[in-house]
Amino acid sequence: FAIQTNILPAARDICTQWALSRGNSIMHRMLLKLEQCLFVDVRTELDELAAIDLAGHCADGRYERMHTGDIFQLTGHYHKASIIFYVTLIVVLLAPQLAYFIISNIFERPPVDEDEGMDCELGEKLEEKVEVLEEQMLELQEQQLHLQR
Do residues 1 and 74 touch, judged by C-beta distance below 8 A? Predict the structure, then answer.
């Protein structure tokens, strides 16, 4: 779109933000709240950029943001590149999620054996401790029997 119109996207962004700062819409109020959180005086910077650097062209509509109709026009004009982009986007973002969903919901997972879920070393240490505790318990029971006699 920038090549067709000979206008950089940054210039469009500046003019869109400048137009929003002049409006009285919900977006205008949201932009004001956001500007209050910043350490820079955005209004002064925007006015300078719009008036000096863009020579006042923000007001003439040539630097407006890209609209949906422009997207459809570009897609029709550059259909091969658009198809490649959309297919790549779907493959990269959607296909892994779909594959995960299909694999996790269609195929049954085998039941996990309790012993398989434990770390081998930890399991061995726990078994040793259990054996020691069982021996100590038997010794205590024997001592209790001796004391009762």
Answer: yes
CA distance 22 to 38: 18
Amino acid type, 52: I
Radius of gyration of the chain from its Cα atoms, rounded to whole angstroms: 35
* The pLDDT of residue 79: 87
Query: How far apart, in whole angstroms, are the C-alpha atoms of residue 14 and residue 63?
Result: 9
pLDDT in tens, 16-73: 777 777 767 777 778 777 877 877 777 777 777 767 656 666 677 777 777 788 778 8
Side chain identity at residue 122, one-letter code: L
Average pLDDT, the chain: 78
Residue 35 backbone phi and psi in degrees, to 5: -65, -30
Separation of alpha carbons 98 and 21, rounded Å? 42
Would you put residue 100 in left (φ > 0), alpha (ψ -120 to 50) or beta? alpha
Which token pair is 58? 């923000």
